Amino acid sequence: MRTSGNYLLDTNIIIAFYDKDPNVLKEIAKAKIYVPSIVIGELWFGAEKSGKKLSNQRQIEAFVDQVSVLPVTETTSKHYGVIKNALKQKGKPVPENDMWIAAIALEYDLVLVTRDRHFSYVPSVKLVAW
């Protein structure tokens, strides 16, 4: 599935969206966005440990109803293996979840929207920060 020219959102961008960051709101309004299932898991983890658990859970459910969530597939797993090996050889550690997120970006040929600089270590991933 090719979706070139579209965007895959990292967790920090969705949190900025929740916080009504004007730049993120502007960009999301004009973009076709996708969200990795891993990011949804990170949001659920945040909700579970939050003092506003129920409110955050409702926010996640409403968000998921409005976006396309991309699952991990066998192809994602192949990209993950390549990414992890390349980063290990470079000596550039990246959190496990972020390697999976990058793998989904590669699989679907999406631009990864993030504010995390460590994604720049991942070969071939197209990045933008909103």
Question: Explain this structure to me?
Answer:
- By secondary structure, this protein is an alpha/beta fold.
- The protein has helices spanning 11-18, 22-29, 37-48, 53-64, 74-90, 96-107, and strands spanning 7-9, 33-36, 68-70, 111-113, 127-128.
- Strands 3-2-1-4-5 form a 5-stranded parallel β-sheet.
- Helix 3 (37-48) runs antiparallel to helix 4 (53-64) and helix 5 crosses helix 6.
- CATH domain fold name: Rossmann fold
Order of helices and strands: EHHEHHEHHEE
> Helix coverage percent of residues?
40-55%
The first-to-last residue Cα distance is 25 Å
Number of domains: 1
Structural class, by secondary structure, is alpha/beta
Question: What is the number of helical segments per DSSP (H or I, 4+ residues)?
Answer: 6
CATH architect. name = 3-Layer(aba) Sandwich
| Largest pleated sheet | 5 strands, parallel
Uncertain spans, ≥5 residues at pLDDT below 50?
Answer: none
Q: Taking strands numbered 1, 2, ... along the chain, how are they ordered across the largest sheet? A: 3-2-1-4-5
Name of the top-level CATH class: Alpha Beta
Q: Quick one: CATH superfamily?
A: 5'-nuclease
Query: What is the number of beta strands?
Result: 5
What key phrases describe this protein's structure?
6 helices; Rossmann fold; alpha/beta
Write the layout of secondary structure elements.
Blueprint: E1 7-9, H1 11-18, H2 22-29, E2 33-36, H3 37-48, H4 53-64, E3 68-70, H5 74-90, H6 96-107, E4 111-113, E5 127-128
Parallel strand pairs: 1-2, 1-4, 2-3, 4-5
Helix pairs in contact: 3-4, 5-6
